[in-house]
Amino acid sequence: MKIVLTGLEQIETQPADQPAVESGMTRLAVRYCGICRTDAKMWHEGHRDLIFPRVPGHEVLAEDEHGQRFTVWPGRICGRCRYCTSGRENLCESMQIMGFHFDGGFSRTLLAPTESLIPVPDTITPHQACFAEPVGCVHNALTALNLQPGERVVVFGGGTVGLIAALVAKTQGAIPLVIEKNARKIARAGAFLGATQITALRETHESEFDAAINACPDPIAFSQAVTKLAKGGRLSFFSGLKKNQTIESNLINLLHYREAALFGAYGLTRQNMVAALGLIARHQPALEHLVEAIVPPEQLSRQLPRVLAGDGFKVILDFTGKTGRRSAAPPPPKTEAAVAGKTDANRLFQRK
Fold first, then answer.
1. Quick check: is 230 in a domain?
2. 271 & 259 share domain
3. Where do the record's region annotations for Disordered lie (predicted)?
4. What is the residue range of 295's domain?
5. Which of 61, 107, 294, 344 could make an SS bond with 2 (beta carbons 3.0 to 4.6 A apart)?
């Protein structure tokens, strides 16, 4: 079976066909596929690169005919342009993206570019390989920031990707602080925050951060990220902003006066995805707290509005037919790191 997006908020379950395998492509059996918020936005409002009908899905764990497990770098590139030949294939002039330009992983079978297959180590729990794409995107962003041990980094947005960004920053020796205005979301993240000893707050009076990341599309959060930077600080423009919004020129001038550096971050390279698998292998217990639910594909329509609203964490479709996971995360334990609105925790982030 495959799940086909036939129009805005229109989904059909259809039998999976068996098209001929073209040269350079490999047929895979999909085992798990994560639901990205981009998938939910496509369902709700379309996308500039989307042509209906289309099978969405780009956070995949699949197997070939020999049982070898792969995740799939979700791009198909020309291999000739200056970006492809300089190791920045995520910026390929002729980029085609799985789930947008060609069918993706919301299907029991998938035809994927052979050069995009990345082996998944046996040490990784199968469904956690679905984190490879979002973790790889974060790795791409933080590589540009070049974080140093002891540097303070503020992450705006406490969703799945924001929390992953904080975790990756911490593994690089930085001291992350997550700002999330939704107190309920901070409480839901309590198990992850407790396991990683990362602090999340609704707001902070601290400033002079060495680096900042916007991990949500709110222009206000982006503006706050600029104001929180120290002189010479670095800002990762990670999440695209809501359309047709205004940013004050006085705010942009702060980048000028503080000699702050702004780094765009779009997608990921294959090497970012390889690095992501290494990080996942080392932090599986923590990342498991970000798995909201593992559900059969028939529940996709029920899950998409919730994913779109950003109410929870990662939801994964199970194509193995063995789904036995909860449909919602249990109430998180209360930890010091998960208490919302307690700005006295700012003392943890003062310069020593």
1. yes
2. no
3. 323-352
4. 2-134+267-318
5. 107
User: Does residue 130 sit in the same domain as residue 7?
Assistant: yes
- Pairwise CA distance, residues 313 & 210, whole Å: 28
Digit-coded pLDDT (tens) for 138-191: 999 999 999 999 999 999 999 999 999 999 999 999 999 999 999 999 999 999
Burial of 313 (0-12, 13-18, 19+ CB in 10 A): buried
Q: Which amino acid is at 263?
A: F
- Measured in whole angstroms, the distance separating CA 5 from the mean position of its chain's CA atoms is 21
**CATH number of the domain that residue 240 is part of:** 3.40.50.720
My answer on whether 153 and 257 are in the same domain is yes
| Same domain for 259 and 304 | no
Helices (H), 172-257: 183-188, 190-196, 219-227, 249-257
In sequence order, the β-bridge partners of residue 14 are: 2
Q: Look at residue 128 and tell me if it is in a domain.
A: yes
Domain assignment present for residue 298? The answer is yes
Give the tens place of pLDDT for each residue, 251-289. Answer: 999 999 999 999 999 999 999 999 999 999 999 999 999
Rounded to an integer, what is the distance from CA 24 to the centroid of its chain?
27
- Cβ distance 36 to 134 under 8 Å? yes
Domain count, the chain: 2
How many CA atoms within 13 Å lie on the side-chain side of 213?
35
Task: Output the CA–CA distances (angstroms, integers) from residue 8 to 4, 37, 230, 236, 296, in the order listed.
Answer: 11, 15, 43, 32, 22
Residues 198 and 272 in one domain: no
- Residue 324 belongs to some domain of the structure: no
Q: Which residues contact 177 (CB under 8 A, 6 or more apart)?
A: 152, 153, 154, 155, 166, 199, 200, 201, 204, 206, 209, 349
Largest CA distance in the chain: 62
> SS3 for 156-173, per residue?
ECCCHHHHHHHHHHHHCC
pTM: 0.92
Q: In angstroms, what CA-CA distances link 202 with 185, 187, 209, 322?
A: 10, 11, 17, 39
Q: Are residues 74 and 95 in the same domain?
A: yes
